[in-house]
Design a protein that fits this description.
single chain, alpha/beta, Rossmann fold, 8-stranded mixed β-sheet, elongated
Length: 501
């Protein structure tokens, strides 16, 4: 980047070294002089591999810990003490009275400005300290602040960038009128038109070039494999809100004999999750359905899980697919350990006809034909595709749904906080809100009318489509932001007896 250099493993360093193995925090008055004389360094290692990192080979004398700060990088966003190397260096520079250099360093990253914004109050307080003792007192003063009453936290889907809120509060229109804001000083509001135009203008003025745009689209599968190799099953939280938001999923538990004579669900039910990842949507759903499948299942029955599961799966066939081979492997491992019966396979749903072909190869029930699924879920998946491939994906789904079968959809809405956090050099198109994250995965933000048009072009009838507004609150940082999602149910028309073109 022109302002840092790489230190080799056995190279001695006389300045201040920020390392998780240090035993004391920064002491600004003395460490400032050490930094001026010898520089500032940070140990580059994975948080998941601290135990195996060869710290003993590093040659330095002045190892230091950073005080409490919160990460803003896409992988660890919102998590305390989980800073990237760039964030750690910037924090050290800021605390040791070099804020301009800290900002210069962070300007190299699209998310860099968010780190200063998240930690501004803390960084300013730390930079006023002279000794380690004063710095720890400033940290303790902040962490000992009484927190406002949080109320009841509700399950909530977070952005693919890994936001981990301490509290999530659903402030619907009716609730917003009745309840006081969690943090009066940082109550989230919809950005005004001037703010939006300023943010979006900066994004549009620095588009990703055509070569890198094509590379991102071409290597989508590889980028998701790298994502899951790096993050494993830890990145996304399990989603336990599914049956509350999509009551259609309760039909899996009821079985055909309890569906009140609905002819479209007279046969054994079948469901497919497109973009299953490591199973954060489907596997918790199956576990919840198993636990409530039969009230007569005694907790003392050693065969309880298998007995209840058999009652569920005799009425249902469960499938899942993902573009990432690594994700499917982890999905299958989780399902096996949980004793859940479902079939997962690799499929690139942006390729014409791919889903129908792969499902045919993996269907295990003679009672089902390729075009016989009752439900397909598409949860935070369409936004990860090249916009030009979205209709193909939806047509693929239509080709495996039976007439009357339904698509359950949830994804990012236009002007969601995640969209406004993207910086320069991240937008793929001037006309469409498609972005690339730092790890090479894509993101898109839908308008309601746009999604309904996509459904129509793919041969679906929109049953319902609505924005879902949430306020996500990180209590530890007194930060509250506005989230916008789009939730919909679409149906393959009952009178449609032909497969979509």
């Amino acid at each position: 980047m022109g302002i840092t250099r790489l230190l080799r493993l056995n190279e001695g360093f006389g300045g201040v070294v920020l390392t998780p193995t240090a035993t004391c925090v920064l002491s600004p008055s003395t460490d400032r002089d050490l930094m001026y004389a010898g520089g500032l360094a940070v140990v580059d290692c994975s948080w998941a591999q601290l135990e195996t990192t060869a710290f003993k080979k590093l040659k330095y004398r002045h190892g230091r810990l950073l005080p409490y700060l919160v990460a803003a990088n896409p992988v660890k966003y919102g998590q305390p003490f989980q800073l990237s190397c760039a964030e750690a260096l910037a924090a050290g520079l800021y605390i040791l009275n070099r804020p301009a250099q800290a900002i210069q360093l962070l300007d190299k990253f699209s998310w860099g400005h968010s780190f200063i914004t998240l930690n501004q109050q803390l960084l300013d307080a730390y930079s006023q300290c002279s000794t380690s003792k004063e710095l720890l007192e400033a940290q303790a003063q902040f962490m000992d602040k009484p927190k406002p009453d949080r109320g009841l936290a509700t399950p909530h889907e977070e952005q693919a960038q890994g936001l981990e809120p301490s509290t999530v509060q659903d402030l619907s229109a009716k609730d917003a009128k009745l309840e006081a804001p969690l943090f009066p000083e940082s109550t989230p509001t919809e950005p005004d038109q001037h703010q939006l135009e300023s943010i979006l203008s900066k994004q549009v003025d620095s588009l990703i070039d055509q070569f890198n745009r094509n590379k991102l689209i071409r290597e989508a599968g590889k980028n998701w494999d790298r994502f899951y190799n790096r993050n494993g099953t830890r990145f996304f939280k399990d989603r336990h809100w599914t049956t509350r938001e999509f009551t259609e999923l309760l039909l899996l538990r009821a079985g055909p004999e309890q569906n009140h004579g609905r002819s479209e669900y007279a046969a054994p039910l079948s469901v497919l999750e497109v973009g299953c990842g490591v199973g954060n949507f489907l596997l918790p759903l199956l576990e919840d359905l198993v636990s409530s499948a039969d009230g007569s299942c005694s907790s003392s029955d050693s065969n309880r899980d298998s007995h209840c599961l058999n009652r569920l799966t005799t009425a249902s066939s469960v499938y899942a697919c993902d573009i990432s081979q690594r994700a499917v492997q982890m999905f299958n491992d989780r399902a096996f350990r949980s004793g859940l019966d479902c079939t997962a396979f690799v499929c690139d749903v942006s390729k014409d006809g791919a889903l129908k072909e792969q499902l045919y190869q993996h269907q295990t029930s003679a009672n089902h034909t390729v075009s016989s699924l009752d439900l397909v879920t598409l949860i935070f998946v369409l936004s990860a595709l090249n916009p030009d491939d979205m209709v193909t994906c939806l047509k693929n789904i239509g080709s495996v749904l039976k007439p009357g079968g339904r698509l359950l959809f949830r994804d990012y809405g236009i002007h969601d906080h995640a969209q406004l956090r993207f910086g320069r050099g991240t937008r793929l198109s001037r006309e469409r809100p498609s972005y690339a994250r730092q790890d090479g995965t894509l993101s898109y933000f839908f308008e309601k009318s746009e999604l309904e048009a996509l459904f129509g072009e793919a041969g679906f009838r929109t049953v319902r489509c609505e924005y879902v507004y949430k306020h996500t609150t990180n209590v530890s940082e007194n930060l509250s932001v506005r989230r916008v999602f789009l939730q919909a149910v679409a149906e393959r028309p009952v009178e449609d007896q032909t497969l979509p073109a």
